[in-house]
Design a protein that fits this description.
This protein has 480 residues and is of the alpha/beta class. It has two domains: 269 residues, Aldehyde Dehydrogenase, Chain A, domain 1; 192 residues, Aldehyde Dehydrogenase, Chain A, domain 2, CATH 3.40.309.10. 39% of the residues lie in helices and 22% in strands. Helix 9 crosses helix 10. The longest helix has 21 residues. The radius of gyration is 23 Å and the shape is globular. Bound molecules: nicotinamide-adenine-dinucleotide (NAD).
Length: 480
């Protein structure tokens, strides 16, 4: 078992309370690391360190900030095998998948480093003999609160844009993914990032996270996680009015029309359903499949699901590992039970593997439900697991109204050979992103973010970078 520390103000420290917690390998249940259980006193220490560092970092020339971000990206690339090994033992993601996701983490750093060099202000011609302009400046100290589903990528997605724009940060990963965060802090420590510019604290959301979100010296909270946590953060941050960028839950519709390429739809949607054991915010949450192609599509989706190789995430043959924790498996299994109880038809999976050694880990087999109806719990709530929920619709149904009848608005897709029809339908979907004949197709250049209970603001792209800036009005009179 490894003993780890937090990274605050350029120093490795324990929690002030000296309390600790442990993280486990989800494939075996074994404890793998012991970490400091930070609380409000540690949040305060880290925020003060970030505030002290802000003066220098915000005035550092953009080219120098970008150089250091590229250096961090290079350190991630150089250590990708070791970082992927940690994601495999801490999170359960298959090693090769973890390596791909970590490559995206370096891409995010490199994109932010380059894009920040293009940020500019604007001149306003409002008065004669007066120069008026909007200057784009960093927001200040950012609390970056991340989820466990793609742990280091999520840290890098937020940290890259926040630092590139000249902010300083306190990162709080979820307790169960803290080991990868402190190993990443070791890379930050080896980079030229000045002390206090990025701090990494570990501990529970309810105390440490809450203390960060309500701290008067924090100017912006960037958080990815569940909508319930997002609502708690809106409440706690409201006492000191902070800028919020929230990337929350989803229950994403995928609409399959009669003229869709069913092979491709099942392949792409099946990939996003079972990648990372379905623990991806953009994965398809509800399949609306036209009755004329329903059975043919389900056959293909089930065939795609049968190709998933469930196993030890360290084994190169494995394409799907365990889910992240015993608690999360219990939540997925409750959803599966509710689907069966409410009358949906389980056509594949729905169980744990029972043979050793998988019986020790937190596994759920790829699962497909048909006969799902709009009011069932599995049609309404985010499951965040390898569970596909297929809803049949006919010519008399308003499928867009059905797709929009949900509190979330993250993303969605329409599958059809008729591009104009796909675009028209997508335009009616109340989501932050939609695709025609694609799903969850993302890159650092592409803005990402939901509407309604799926969140506020955008992440990635120039739009995501701008979230970490604010505009200041400057005006002077030309005298003489
Ligand atoms: P979570 O909401 O349980 O936790 C997210 C983070 O918030 C963790 O670091 C947690 O410790 C912290 N937290 C918890 N309570 C807090 C509080 N009161 N104040 C401050 N911080 C607090 O989410 P999770 O279970 O880690 O992740 C899964 C969720 O994340 C799913 O709902 C998924 O859809 C969502 N997600 C969304 C996106 C997106 O881009 N929209 C991406 C990935 C995951």
């Amino acid at each position: 078992m490894q003993d780890c520390k937090m990274w605050i103000g350029g120093a490795w420290v324990d929690a002030e309370s000296e309390r600790t917690f442990t993280v486990r390998n989800p494939a075996t249940g074994d404890e793998i690391a012991r970490l400091p259980q930070g609380g409000p006193a540690d949040a305060d220490r880290a925020v003060r360190a970030a505030r002290a560092a802000f003066v220098g970092w915000s005035k550092t020339p953009q080219a120098e900030r970008s150089r250091i971000l590229n250096q961090i990206a290079a350190l991630i690339r150089a250590e990708v095998d070791e970082l992927a090994r940690i994601e495999t033992i801490e999170h359960g993601m298959p090693f090769e998948s973890a390596k791909k996701v970590l490559t995206f983490a370096s891409h995010a750093m490199e994109f932010a480093a380059a894009a920040a060099r293009t940020l500019r202000g604007e001149v306003i011609r409002a008065f004669p003999n007066t120069v008026t302009y909007l200057e784009r400046e960093p927001v200040g100290v950012c609390a970056l609160i991340t989820p466990w589903n793609v742990p280091l990528f999520m840290i890098c997605a937020k940290l890259s844009t926040a630092l590139a724009a000249g902010n300083t940060c306190v990162v709080k990963p979820p307790s169960i993914s803290s080991l990868i965060a402190v190993r990443f802090a070791e890379l930050l420590a080896r980079s030229d990032l000045p002390p206090g510019v990025a701090n990494i604290v570990t501990g529970p959301g309810g105390s440490l996270g809450d203390a960060l979100c309500s701290h008067p010296m924090v100017d912006l909270v960037g958080m990815t996680g569940s909508s319930e946590t997002g609502k708690a953060i809106i409440a706690s941050s409201s006492r000191t009015i902070k800028r919020l960028v929230l990337e929350l839950g989803g229950k994403n519709p995928a609409i399959v029309l009669p003229d869709a390429d069913l092979d491709r739809a099942a392949e792409v949607l099946g990939h996003h359903q079972f990648f990372n054991s379905g623990m991806t915010c953009g994965s398809p949450g509800r399949y609306y499949v036209h009755e004329s192609v329903h059975d043919a599509f389900v056959d293909r989706l089930v065939a795609r699901a049968r190709k998933v190789v469930v196993g030890d995430p360290s084994d190169p043959a494995t394409t799907m590992g365990p889910v992240v924790s015993a608690e999360h498996r219990a939540s997925i299994e409750n959803h599966i039970r509710s689907g069966v109880d409410e009358g949906a038809r389980l056509v594949l999976g729905g169980e744990r593997p029972t043979a050793p050694p998988l019986d020790r880990g937190y596994y759920v087999l790829p699962t497909v439900f048909t006969g799902v109806t709009q009011t069932m719990q599995i049609a309404r709530e985010e499951i965040f697991g390898p569970v596909a929920c297929v809803i049949r619709f006919g010519d008399g149904d308003d499928v867009i109204a059905l797709a929009n009848d949900n509190v979330y608005g993250l993303c969605g897709s329409v599958w059809t050979a008729n591009l104009a029809k796909g675009l028209r339908m997508g335009a009616e979907l109340r989501v932050g992103s939609f695709w025609v004949n694609q799903h969850n197709h993302l890159a650092p250049e592409v803005p990402w973010g939901g509407i309604r209970e799926s969140g506020l603001g955008k992440e990635a792209s120039i739009e995501g970078l701008k979230e970490f800036t604010q505009m200041k009005l400057v005006s002077y009179e030309l005298i003489g």
